[in-house]
Specification:
Blueprint: H1 4-22, H2 25-43, H3 49-89, E1 92-93, E2 99-100
Antiparallel strand pairs: 1-2
Helix pairs in contact: 1-2, 1-3
Length: 109
């Protein structure tokens, strides 16, 4: 029989992946904290060979989620870098062709 913690961990990893794809940060944080508690419980118990195989599969799921997180962080970092570069390096010129402060035109819908 497979420990209920393993089944619960599988469910949490699937929910975490769904939250990652939606960008639901609060859900991701809740799932992460819950994962740690489940892993702590599993660490304190002896697992059968069948359970160890399931745990191996769950590690791979967790690794896939980690890669999604890293890709998202990389995207956010690059977007921040681009915006920061734009605001720091952006110069505009007025009608006399002398540098002036940049202005943004916002059109409301």
């Amino acid at each position: 029989m497979v420990r209920s913690e393993l089944l619960e961990l599988k469910r949490v990893l699937e929910e975490e992946r769904s939250a990652l794809m939606k960008g639901a940060v609060e859900e991701i944080l809740k799932r992460s904290a819950y994962k740690v508690r489940l892993l702590h419980l599993l660490q304190q118990s002896d697992l059968s060979s069948e359970e160890l195989e399931i745990l191996k599969e769950l590690r791979e799921k967790n690794e896939q989620n980690r890669r999604i997180i890293e890709a998202g962080l990389s995207f956010v970092e690059e977007a921040y870098r681009m915006l920061n570069s734009f605001f720091i390096n952006r110069e505009t010129y007025n009608n006399e062709r002398t540098p002036s402060e940049g202005r943004f035109i916002v059109r409301s819908a």
